[in-house]
From TrEMBL:
Name of this protein: Phosphoglycerate mutase
Gene Ontology cellular component terms for the protein in this record: cytoplasm
Recorded GO MF terms: phosphatase activity
InterPro entries membership: His_Pase_superF_clade-1, His_PPase_superfam, PGM_Phosphatase
One Pfam family hit: His_Phos_1
Length: 224
């Protein structure tokens, strides 16, 4: 058996969110038609790979994104609660410049410490659970490849930890576009490289691409 194992961590596809809420861990948010196309595109991209294990966050948008990959490789789809979206006190609200959530003084107390962050699940807690989920996927696919479907912030945080960057950051600069793959290559139990690809890049609206400038009237991340 090879001592090389590859774990692809995929962000889910676009979500149907007509009210523009930060949906976080709320149930009932599913992929849009475009999001389904993104999931299928990535499944096609990964079809030649030696994938023996597919696991997702328990949230609907993640499971729907993972399903085409699992079906393509003829494996059962597993779930791991450690891959879930980060907690956020603004869940269920609109969130952006000029909207009610930030204009309400009652919410300002949640913004006092961006280094933790004070508005949600601490970054270090996200690292611990995500590293646990990646290690479990690596063990399940040892010598082969695995796919884990998760959410933007936890993916970016675990990548930042592995690449030894500070965990607090400007959310606008996360390199974790919809349906992207952040790939961790293990030799034995040690991560030896990290890669990043966007197989569905041509399907992603320009204002949602990694590093894109914000566009008036459009938000980059209502849930992630």
């Amino acid at each position: 058996m090879s001592d090389i194992t590859v774990v692809h961590v995929m962000r889910h596809g676009e979500v149907a969110n007509p009210d523009g809420l930060l949906y976080g861990r709320l149930p009932g948010y599913h992929l849009s038609e475009l999001g389904q196309r993104m999931a299928e595109r990535v499944a096609e991209h990964l079809a030649p790979r030696d994938i023996t294990h597919v696991v997702s966050s328990p949230l609907e948008r993640a499971r729907e994104t993972a399903t085409p990959v699992a079906e393509t490789h003829g494996v059962d789809l597993a779930t791991d609660a450690r891959l879930i979206e980060a907690e956020n006190v603004f869940q269920g609200k609109t969130f952006g410049v000029g909207d009610g959530a930030l204009r309400n003084p009652e919410n300002w107390k949640h913004l006092v410490n961006p280094f933790k962050p004070s508005w949600g699940e601490p970054y270090l807690e996200q690292v611990v659970r995500m590293m646990g989920a990646l290690d479990a996927a690596k063990d399940a696919a040892r010598g082969h490849e695995a796919v884990c479907v998760s959410h933007q912030l936890p993916i970016w945080i675990v990548r930042s930890f592995v690449e030894r960057r500070r965990l607090w950051h400007d959310p606008r600069k996360r390199q974790c576009t919809l349906a992207s793959l952040t790939t961790f290559t293990y030799r034995g139990d040690e991560i030896v490289s990290v890669g990043y690809t966007e197989p569905a890049r041509d399907l992603v609206p320009a204002h949602l691409l990694a590093g894109a400038r914000a566009v008036k009237g459009k938000s980059k991340a209502f849930g992630a």
